[in-house]
Give the backbone structure.
Amino acid sequence: GLLGRVGADLSRVEFFHFPFDRGWTRDSGPLFVRRDAPPKEVAIARFRFNAWAKYPDWKRDARVPLLAARKLRLRLLPVRIGEKDFVLEGGSIEVNGAGTLVTTEECLLDPKVQVRNPGLGRGEIEGALRANLGVENILWLGKGIAGDDTHGHIDDVCRFVNRRTVVFCQEANPRDANYRLLQENRERLEGMRLEDGSRIEAVPLPMPAPLYLDSQRLPASYANFYIANAAVLVPTFNDPQDRVALGILTELFPDRPVVGIHAVDLVWGLGTIHCLTQQQPAL
C-alpha cells in the first residue's frame, strides 16, 4: 500500500473502520484527556458533536468517540451540564498543556448563530471546560476567519507552538474581510496572560490570498497545521506567503522538520490538516 511505499513502519499503524458522516476528525473524533497524577490514565472526554449546530447529518459522527473508546479500551467520560450533553468540537479549543485554553466568543458564545449550547453563558461554559479538560486559565479571542462554516474555530486563527508561545494570523490587506477581526484578536492577545501570570509570546503568521470555490470564500489558513511526533504538517495554498509561513514555523519548531502539504483541494471541503487529525497522547 501507499504507507509501505513511503517506508512507514506498518507495525505501528492500526486502522479502525468506523462509519461517519464526514472526515473532520478534529471535531467529531475522540478528544483525549490525560491525568498525570497517579494512577496515570488516558481517557476520552465525550463531548457531543452536532455538526457545528448547522447541518442535519451528524449521528454517525457522534458515535465515533464511543467506538474509539471501545477499540482503545479507554474510559469514556460523558460531559454534561445538568441533563444535557455539552457540545464542543476539538477545533474550537487550543491548549498549551499547562492549564491555558484559547477559544473564540464567536464560536462558543454567539446567542443566535450556530448556538452549540443554548441557554449557557460564559461562566457556565468556562466551568464545563475547566471541569472536563483540566484547564484553569481560559482566554477569549473575538472572531474566527471569513469563510469558516464552523463559525469561529480557533484552529484557523491562533495556535500554541509551545507552552509559552502562540502564532496568530494577521491579514496585511486592509480591505480584506479578515483584516479588522484579526487585528482585534492581536490586540486582545497583547493583554493576555498565561496560567502562571506571564505574558504570552505572540508571533504573527501571514494569511494567504483569498481562495474561493465559485463565489464562496474558503477558510484557508496556515494556522491549521498539525504537530506530529516527527514533523509539523502545514497546509499550503500555492501562494507567495507559503514560503513565509513555513519559514516562521521552521524557526519555532527547531526539533522537527516543517513540511508543507498542498491543501487547495482540501480547503474546498472547508478545512485542512488540523481539521482532519486528532492526536492521542502517550500515557
Observations:
- The first helix runs from residue 2 to 5.
